[in-house]
Design goal:
With 214 residues, the chain is an all-beta fold. It is 0% helix and 38% strand.
Length: 214
């Protein structure tokens, strides 16, 4: 009975020779067990906790240890869209990352990061094209759009969307290095002018776009 099998019923006191045992009731539902007041000897229960994450800053990119989920912070404020293992900082400040492995969450120590200046290049250098799902150029309608480029010589292509106030509102790592359009899903953003940044070839390519929910 029970997950630890505290006790068992192994038989009854009815003499089967009488042939009348089928007419007896066995009141299992009123069974009680008393184990006394003595506590068992304490035993050590191992508890596994998540190790505090750490991160490096190389090639203008922050990279943390592997986990299930990630959230980067700048000056103790969560960075919108910075939920990948890697993050490319654009502002000097104190950075940290919160990670989770299973149900165990942990936060790294904060570090002062001086964002490395990246050369800004013309979008036409990589034939950058941003278009809505109905292929209107430099327009994003709703929560998805297409990005297309060519002449990318490096891996680790990433994308940021910056609002008119200079705040990063979306971030995506590991874009596919291909010439054909690839669809990017984003959060719903308020209507206005934004800037899409593509980080590749150790440069940043900036395209001005208009985002609308209409």
């Amino acid at each position: 009975i029970g997950p630890n099998k505290i006790f068992s019923f192994t038989g009854n006191s009815v003499q089967t020779a009488s042939g009348n045992y089928q007419n007896y009731f066995y009141f299992f539902y009123s069974t009680q067990i008393k184990a006394g007041n003595t506590l068992s000897v304490a035993t050590e229960v191992p508890v596994k906790t998540a190790e505090k994450p750490s991160f490096t800053f190389t090639d203008s990119t922050l990279k943390t240890t592997i986990a299930s989920t990630y959230q980067w912070y700048l000056n103790d404020e969560a960075i919108v869209g910075a939920t990948n293992q890697n993050y490319r900082p654009s502002t000097n400040g104190m950075y940290k990352v919160a990670t989770k492995i299973g149900t165990c969450a942990s936060v790294s120590d904060s570090r002062l990061i001086i964002a490395t200046a990246i050369e800004e290049a013309q979008p036409k250098e990589i034939s950058l094209r941003i278009s809505s799902v109905d292929y209107t150029q430099n327009m994003i309608r709703g929560n998805s759009f297409y990005v297309q480029f060519s002449n990318i010589q490096t891996e680790g292509i990433s994308l940021d969307i910056i609002n008119s106030m200079g705040s990063n509102v979306f971030h995506k790592e590991n874009l596919i290095n291909q010439r054909s359009p690839q669809r990017i899903n984003i959060n719903n953003l308020t209507t206005g002018v934004y800037f899409v940044k593509i980080y590749a070839n150790k440069k940043v390519y900036v395209q001005r776009v208009f985002i609308t929910n209409n």
